[in-house]
Amino acid sequence: MLGLTLGGRYRIIQQLGKGGFGVTFLAEDMQRPKNPKCVVKLFQPVAQDPNTLTAGKQLFDREAETLEVLGTHNQIPRLLAHFQEHQNFYLVQEFVEGHDITQELLPGKKLSEPYVVKLLKDILEILTFVHHNNHIHRDIKPSNIRRRQSDGKIVLLDFGAVKQLSTQVVNSQGQTTNTIAIGTRGYMPSEQAQGNPHFNSDIYALGIIAIQALTGTTPAELVTDIQTGEIEWRNHLKIDIRPELADVLDKMICYDYRQRFTSAKSVLEALKDVFEGLPDTSVYPLPTGKQTSHHIARQPSFPQKKIIIFAALGIGLALVAIAGIFILTFRSQTTAVNKATKYNNDEFGFAIKYPADWERVDINNPITKEVVIFSSPKQNPQDQFKENVVVRVENFPGTLEESQKYFKNEIENSFSQVNILSSDTTTLAHKLASQIVFMGKDEDRELKNLQVWTLKDEKAYVITYTAEVNEYDKFLKKARTIVKSFEIN
Question: Which of 29, 122, 139, 202 is catalytic?
Answer without folding.
Answer: 139
